[in-house]
Amino acid sequence: MAGKTHNGPKGAAGEQSGEDVSWQAQKSAMTRDRILDAAIHCFVVLGYTNVTTAKVASSAGVSRGAMLHHFPSKTELIQAAVEYLHDKLLEDYTEKVANIPATLTGADRRRAGIDAYWDHLTGDLFTVYNELCVASRTDPELRSILENSQQLFEEHIRETNGELFTEWRDRGDRFTLAMDVTKCMMEGMAGAQLMINREARVKRLLHYLTDRMEEIFEEGESSAIGRHSND
Amino acid sequence: MAGKTHNGPKGAAGEQSGEDVSWQAQKSAMTRDRILDAAIHCFVVLGYTNVTTAKVASSAGVSRGAMLHHFPSKTELIQAAVEYLHDKLLEDYTEKVANIPATLTGADRRRAGIDAYWDHLTGDLFTVYNELCVASRTDPELRSILENSQQLFEEHIRETNGELFTEWRDRGDRFTLAMDVTKCMMEGMAGAQLMINREARVKRLLHYLTDRMEEIFEEGESSAIGRHSND
DNA sequence: AGTGTTAAAAACAAGCCGGACTGATTAAAT
DNA sequence: ATTTAATCAGTCCGGCTTGTTTTTAACACT
């Protein structure tokens, strides 16, 4: 599994007992991860605001006391869970992108990238992440937790996309525009309440977006640049 | 009429000489509206999940007992507040659109429509509405309250846009596409966390979107329809 | 084994929210 | 003037959530 930017050193404060990772430390780390997985599961099922420490504990199959041992307060639990979620988000996206067959090239590859992103956006992980962003508007604590990961996430996506579409990476402004258009439109689609005929409309929008991506870079190669320059 | 299911706009309890409307009824209606305004204000300031009946009451300047007289339970208060918010949303959008000067025509008018929509989306009312939508994922009660207004809202927007851009109204599919693209992209922009250089990127995206709208209908007039047809 | 350390479980205390109830005050309606 | 409706202030209870404390169980080391 990926991530590991934070969780590893739980029993790092090893006693004089030596170098080998004690059995208890391993066990402890495992229950820690179980708790974090349970926390995210609760986010998905209950929604951020309805998550209580008791529910996380029971969902993880541990007692509240055990959980309090690992996370002395709810704040610390949430913080750890958000970081964990962040790791899983990055992992999910990079994995989906990495699974695009190398045989695809050109327009097919770009289309596959959009589909992969769409899969990512419609998954539970992103749904929860989005909920956290919304909730953070009036939750300063959560806000400060998220601010770090948001920038990291944006940079990571840009980087990944740069690797995925090497032919576009050095297009500068135009690359940013393409990514912003994709991001906004697809996140908008993911969040929009399209009440009637949703399937067809989404399909058509994805198709439309794919065409626009091609257009942006085709235009770049030809001449008609002026219209959406940055004034 | 779509909105106005329960009260009139702001001065609903107009003090004109109503024989049939008793003084007390008017006064009662006024405090009722004060409470609903306070509820929405609390939504804006505190966020949906942090709203308590006590805070709404104190924010409205009435006692809890008085509020319970109007809204016997929190559920009924929320329900009324959501309907009230829905009315205000429609009012806000139609007003912003109506304020577009009649002297504007063609592309200028379309651009003004996009700007008006953007103003609408970045206002407090929509922010709160969006929060409610997100919260409704795991709040069945709220969900059922919202479902009604969502469809009404979508229809109303379509209708309003049809009046605003009469030249497009009978374009059928293409009109739907244009509206979906605009809706998704702009709502995505409103919700997206663009951490760096936000202003410039938003400006550019609005510009880009405007161009795409023109393009959609220009193409319709010429020939190259095939690419984003509904296959 | 026996002792000490640590994870885990269970019991406890405190706070907040929503709702019910009461009694008093004000003002309109008759 | 009497009646009725609206408003207000205060109290109390039940439920839920959090965090602390106490108790039990598991393991490690000599």
Describe this structure in words.
Two copies of one chain form a homodimer. With 231 residues, chain A is mainly alpha-helical. The first copy, chain A, has two domains: 49 residues, Arc Repressor Mutant, subunit A (Orthogonal Bundle), CATH 1.10.10; 150 residues, Orthogonal Bundle (Tetracycline Repressor, domain 2). In chain A, 69% of the residues lie in helices and 0% in strands. Chain A has nine helices and no strands. The longest helix of chain A has 25 residues. Chain A starts with 22 loop residues before the first helix and ends in a 10-residue tail after the last helix. The relative contact order of chain A is 0.09. The interface between A and B is large, with 46 and 46 residues. Chain A binds a DNA duplex (30 and 30 nucleotides) through helix 1 and helix 3.
Short structural description:
Chain A contains nine helices and no strands.
